[in-house]
Fold this sequence. Notes:
The complex is a heterodimer. By secondary structure, chain A is mainly α. In chain A, 73% of the residues lie in helices and 0% in strands. Chain A has helices at residues 16-30, 44-51, 56-83, 88-91, 93-98, 106-127, 129-147, 152-172, 179-198, 212-238, 243-257, 261-275, 283-308, 312-320, 325-340, 342-355, 367-376, 384-412. Chain A starts with 15 loop residues before the first helix and ends in a 6-residue tail after the last helix. Residues 1-12 of chain A have low confidence and may be disordered. Chain B is 37% helix and 25% strand. Chain B is built from nine helices and ten strands. Chain B has helices at residues 55-61, 84-93, 109-119, 125-138, 154-166, 184-199, 211-217, 235-240, 245-256; strands at 15-26, 29-40, 44-48, 70-75, 78-79, 94-97, 172-176, 203-207, 220-225, 228-233. In chain B, strand 4 (70-75) and strand 5 (78-79) form a beta hairpin. The longest helix of chain B is centred in the C-terminal third of the chain and has 16 residues, at 184-199. The radius of gyration of chain B is 18 Å and the shape is globular. The model of chain B is unreliable at 1-9 (pLDDT under 50). The A-B interface holds A 311, 313-314, 316-324, 327, 331-332, 335-336, 339, 413, 415-418 and B 63, 65, 88, 91-92, 94-96, 98, 100, 102-108, 115-116, 119-120, 148-151, 161, 164-165, 168.
Amino acid sequence: MVACNNGAGGYKGIPFNRQKTVVNALRIIKNMQEIKPPAHTTGSVRWLKDNLFNTWYNVLLSCLALIFLFFAFKGLLTWAFTEAKWGVIPANLQLFGVGAYPREQIWRVWSVIYILCVLVGLSAGMWGGLTLRFALVLVGICFIGGLSPFELSTRGWFLGAVATTVVSLFLGRGRTGLRPWILGAWLLSFPLIMIVLRGFGENGVLTSNWGGLLLTLILAVVGIVVSFPLGVFLALCRQSNLPAIRWVSTAYIEMVRGVPLITILFMGSILIPIFMPGLDINQVLRMMIGITFFSAAYMAENVRGGLQGIPRGQHEAAQAIGLNYAQTMLLIVLPQALRSVIPAIVGQFIALFKDTSLVAIIGLIDLLGVARSVIANPDWFGLQAEVYLFAAIIYFVFSYSMSYGSQEIEDALRVGEI
Amino acid sequence: MKTHLTEPQEKIKNPIIICEDVHKWFDDFHVLKGITTSFEKGERAVICGPSGSGKSTFIRTLNRLEEHQRGTIIVDGVELSDDLRNINLIRQEVGMVFQQFNLFPHLTNLQNITLGPIRVRKMTKSEAEEVALSLLERVDIADQAYKYPSEISGGQQQRVAIARALAMEPKIMLFDEPTSALDPEMITEVLDVMRELARSGMTMLVVTHEMGFAREVADRILFFDEGVIVEDAAPADFFDNPQHERTKLFISQTLQH
Lengths: 418, 257
């Protein structure tokens, strides 16, 4: 604040009761950025008054809504804390997590988690920001897991994961030069994780035993990671100057979009073996392919929307400095186009994540499938609400993380925007 | 060179751009109706004319942002054709400045300038940045290097765009109405940069409505109307002794305000 040292004398000729105004006016002239909006135009009370209680019928509606919310939440909370039998969740936690994955092979899943912990830790160290927050959440969850009353070995695995993440975080700290290597490592971790989970031959774990959240996540991650570049490629093809490429791409996109996902999954499951009898592809892989191809068509349309938003002048300027087609797309057009469609793309990722539950129709037991089988178990009869609510919370946590991440990425990429 | 000009114009000694009977259609609309002219190395030509006369389309055919459908264009000894290699060669030699600046909004001003030298000229990053910074100095906005285009004024953006084109060390600079999208007070700062460039001996083709600039800087003024060159003269002759009625009308209308 600007100090006002006019002493006790005040300004001559100005009535005392006006002097404060004059002083304030001088302050304002001296330091314009000091001006704050008048208090009554902002703040939460003002907002409530403006939006919820501004007319008599809004007051009425707001009160009714508050009463409804009160009773609804009261009912839910009372049920959750007094009637619900939450014992069903910890008792089946492994089932929810990995489905029918054999117990003696569970080290494979932990190995995968450790691989991810190392990568997340290193990334968090190198990038900070969003990745760091993500790593801290991971550490927090594993820490809680380590303190929970599981078997000793499980708790050991959890605490080991905490240690692995933290150590990797410190190892990665400040080594920004290694960033490209880590990106490569993330890509390579993909097949590695599959191999670790599957193992080899009879000693490994058949994919038909993969289940629960593990299966849901594998299907979703494969779908997202593969359909994204495929979708970008299809979108570029659809914008191509060469009619043949454009037509093939358009036909593919329109065909896939005209068919429900469930039909594609059925086709993958039933028709592929009929048409290609010699080819023995396992069910999980077929579902991955179906989900990916389905998602790619929608991705292509989202990306195309972004491409169309890029002014012609950007292409021309890129060409005028001699960039070729690939450079123009990769360096100028796609970075701008993709940034503008992040919300749509992430919305589609979230939809894909939840749509993986459709694999239940060909007998794979994903998270929702496990929930159904637990309810069908006579030991846990009548506990639908608890089990489904738990499944819903898991779905929500992952979906919301994606949504949150997308907002962070959008903010980070908002550079240079008007 | 594949084409031989049958009748080289007498004053042209060392043409860097040769146009022979250039035609261009947008669907059925005949935009360029047989443009035949040539430009010397170091020549500063201003192209003017009413809107829709084909003047912008003409200079855009010179680095093949528009394809011409008939005739021949030879730039720096290379004929413009469907051959992609030729086009990319030409685009390295021909810099272009647009009416709407067309800076890349996701890159800083410095990155806008270094992109071409790094990716096309295969300079190292540090070399390219050195060149870019000296160019920014030349267009008098070195202090804006690390800002984004949206953070600077229109006049400054256009100067960055000029620096971006110059960074490719072009032999020819094309300006497509470089000041038409600017506020009046920013026009001067861009024109100053162009004057300086003209003094340095750059071959410049400028589509503009700035008649003061044309009179002062140009060696030659070409007046386009309805897809043909109506008048092609030195500034003094063009303004004081125009040969065609259409030109007289245009000059009287532009000089009125």
